[in-house]
Specification:
With 402 residues, the protein is an alpha+beta fold. Helices cover 33% and strands 7% of the residues. A hairpin with a 3-residue loop joins strand 1 (284-286) and strand 2 (290-293). The radius of gyration is 46 Å and the shape is rod-shaped.
Length: 402
């Protein structure tokens, strides 16, 4: 084969061939066809010899060497000496590079492979394709939120038994510490009203917690009712005017079908026009936990019978209880410390019971009321003065249910 030199040849980059390589070819010059064939055969044999380790550690160089060896053979067979020479020389460069790159022990011995590069050989790595830590046998931390419940990948890879000393079960909330009873999540119903906290629906876990709670709680920290989306009754006195907390929590629109406005008297029925308040009452005021008396009951000295002077007071209390049928009350009698303790207790019990009987006469169901006397044991003022003793002689009406 004859080789012509062209000193005016231009260096042209070809796909997969570096400019440095082309320059090297120009420096080497032409070689004989016999030499090229021998060199090509040597490259082919070397590629077969180092194939396994080069495939593991230097796959690109191995592939380029084999491809250009084949291109060189094809060009030489067609009589294209220059092209054949280019491919063979490049193949020779690549096979030497592949050989040098794959002499590491990990390349020579497949059993010492470390595919994920975490320093733990595959034969000892429970997660050979994912970088991990030696303390977890080559896997990532199976419980990064430290709640004792395994991240989902542990189950997916069948490694629950391997990490049983660290965690159990499957964590539906792997980034937030929880408890095993809730699948590694926090309590899905903090206020225990049977309506799920809002994060449950947002996390797509409604089905998983269906046995514990349903829906999405608008009042996550206050025990409520499913019918009110986890909130208390927004209109506790039933007058169509919303309790103040509804507005404070920005939920007026949510409960617009039940109530409107802001109730200035949320503990007894009123009207929307009067901002939820009833007409002014002369003798009582209803608060959250009590029916406050603006004047006390009148009893004969050391007697239990309610005097006629207290009829207007009794009538007003009865009217409130009729208007608010959900209210239950506890009637408590109290005395000052004058006289014998036992007699005072008996007297206070009798007076409380008399008030209850008067309310029953006015149509209030007995099962909505209780009566009890405490004598002088619960004073609200000093017994050292006449004024203080007068305050201690009283009847209290506490609301026990509404």
């Amino acid at each position: 084969m004859k080789c012509k030199r062209n000193h005016g040849i231009r260096v042209r980059a070809v796909a997969g061939v570096s400019v440095s390589f082309v320059a090297a070819v120009l420096l080497v010059g032409c070689v004989s066809g016999t030499q090229l064939k021998a060199q090509r055969q040597q490259i082919q044999e070397q590629a077969e010899q180092i194939h396994d380790r080069a495939y593991r550690c230097s796959p690109r160089e191995l592939a380029l060497a084999k491809a250009h060896e084949e291109f060189g053979r094809a060009e030489l067979n067609r009589g294209n000496g220059r092209r054949g020479e280019d491919h063979v020389l490049f193949a020779d460069e690549m096979i030497k590079d592949a050989d040098a790159r794959s002499l590491h022990t990990l390349c020579l011995d497949p059993s010492l492979q470390d595919r994920d590069g975490d320093g733990i050989i595959d034969s000892e790595d429970l997660c050979p394709d994912t970088p991990g830590l030696r303390e977890f046998q080559g896997c990532p931390d199976p419980d990064p939120d430290k709640d004792g419940v395994c991240d989902p990948w542990v189950s997916e890879m069948g490694l629950l038994a391997e990490f049983a000393h660290i965690c159990q079960g499957i964590d539906y909330c792997p980034t937030v510490p929880g408890v095993l009873a809730f699948f590694g999540c926090p309590n899905p119903d903090r206020d225990g009203d049977g309506v799920c906290d809002q994060w449950v629906e947002a996390a797509g876990l409604s089905d998983q917690f269906a046995r514990t709670c349903t829906g999405s709680d608008l009042c996550e920290d206050v025990k409520g009712l499913p019918g009110f989306r986890g909130c208390p009754n927004p209109d506790s006195d039933g007058d169509g005017v919303c309790d103040p907390w509804v507005s404070e929590m920005g939920l007026l629109a949510e409960f617009a079908q039940i109530c409107q406005g802001v109730d200035q008297c949320p503990y007894e029925k009123g009207t929307l026009e009067d901002k939820g308040c009833p007409p002014p009452r002369k003798y009582i005021e209803v608060t959250e936990n009590k029916i406050e008396l603006k004047e006390q009951f009148f009893f004969a000295t050391n007697k239990t019978q309610v005097l006629s002077k207290s009829v207007p007071l009794l009538d007003e209390i009865a009217a409130v209880l009729k208007e608010n049928p959900a209210i239950h009350i506890a009637i408590e009698g109290h005395t000052d410390n004058t006289g014998r303790h036992r007699s005072n207790v008996t007297l206070s019990q009798g007076r409380a019971k008399s008030v209850m009987q008067e309310l029953i006469k006015r149509g209030i169901a007995a099962d909505r009321m209780t009566s009890e006397g405490f004598g002088p044991d619960r004073p609200i003022d000093t017994n050292s003065t006449a004024e203080g003793r007068a305050k201690n002689r009283r009847v209290d009406i506490n609301i026990t249910k509404r």
